[in-house]
């Protein structure tokens, strides 16, 4: 179930990202041996299985891998004027390999798509109750050199009257996709549902549901597979905060934020952890005003920046994935895999188990899209 889900989600991501068809003739498919099917076109992307292992310390969690082999077919090594077509194909292979790497590496959307496949298979098999999914995405681990492949690779039946196919192939390796086992706890929400649905009426993929804190009115609604926080013309001094109740005060927290409008360059958005009330909690935010990843403690209504790390210019319409590892009084956070911010003396509600999302309030036009919220212990 896990391996199949990861391979299918990887295939779907490549088809979408590369603009490949989902009907015949297929140019990207899950293939057991990594080789293309008979009669494939000039370029084919094979998604195939990598090793599964248990390399997670102090847990039974498993890590999974997926490989992508790109095959480029060249019927003749040279054209009529002696140009080396194999060398040209190798140059094209480098470009395609770069695209594949960027589409799969540390892609939380792909991870959540794999979890959706797991959940679908689980329900179809008659499962009920909690099912544990992936909590870590695939990471690029390396690639091999392009290699020449011949008729056997293309499963060609070669006779004297036919031209023997030849080409090059290259395999990219991805691994580290961590699948939680029952000794772990996982909460997540892909915010999939009908556009316009209030977050209060939305059912999380895994979790207890969402509660809007302190404010009234519909300030968070589903929008194209995400949730949109919108000030709706109101200046909300303490911002918009929605929370969900969990069983743990520490863990690994993830969310993707995107600022869809350019009208306010001073907003900030991200995670809320250990929420007590609107005057007491910790937040890990991407700040447009500071162009930074910020660890913020709110204590008795007073906000204090504990750590701020530059992330470059925070732009409109760009995804920023926040990852925060919280352990006791320490937190280490990153954005898109870099820009590390750490703080080791958290003091506010350190045993709190309510966590969630926050959009800071600086103007009546503030908006933020949130996606792929997740917590694992």
Q: Can you give me a brief rundown of this structure?
A:
By secondary structure, the chain is mainly β.
Helices and strands in order, then pairings?
Layout lengths: L1 H17 L9 E3 L12 E7 L12 E13 L10 H20 L3 H17 L14 E5 L3 E3 L16 E14 L6 E4 L21 E2 L7 E4 L2 E5 L9 E6 L5 E8 L9 E10 L2 E8 L4 E8 L2 E9 L9 E8 L2 E6 L2 E6 L10 E6 L7 E10 L1
Parallel strand pairs: 1-2
Antiparallel strand pairs: 2-3, 3-6, 4-6, 5-6, 7-21, 8-11, 9-10, 10-21, 11-20, 12-17, 12-21, 13-14, 13-20, 14-15, 15-16, 17-18, 18-19
Describe this structure in words.
The model has no long low-confidence stretch (mean pLDDT about 85). It is built from three helices and 21 strands. The protein is mainly beta and about 375 residues long. β13 and β14 (about 280-285) form a beta hairpin. Strands 7, 9, 10, 12, 17, 18, 19 and 21 form an eight-stranded antiparallel β-sheet that branches. Strands 8-11-20-13-14-15-16 form a seven-stranded antiparallel β-sheet, with no helix packed on it. The radius of gyration is 24 Å and the shape is elongated. The chain folds into two domains: about 1-180; about 185-375, Exo-inulinase, domain 1 (Jelly Rolls).
